[in-house]
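Marked as duplicate of an earlier ticket. Keeping the data here for the record.
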Amino acid sequence: MEESSKNLYMVEIAGLPMKLRSSHDEETVKQLAAMVDEKVKEALDIGKNVSFQNALLLASLHIAEELIILKRTALGELDRIESRTQQLLTDLEDSPVARIRLDN
């Protein structure tokens, strides 16, 4: 995507202001920043010995974990829907009504 089509946003993550260039709309950028901010703060709250760098890594791992679980869940659901759809198609093809229509 072209750099010129990206907007510049000011966000704050764990008290650290930063400029972020994104092609997403402002609301999406706010949601992304809020999610990362929340995860970093959770990681920092684990203990006084957690460095900011480790908090960032822990936050990244938590977000990656959520993403992987969501992907697995979505793929499992898609597989279940596909299997059910195939079964319904087979049932329709094997139904007496379908055989009558095919014979005509």
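See parent ticket for discussion. The chain has a mean pLDDT of 89.
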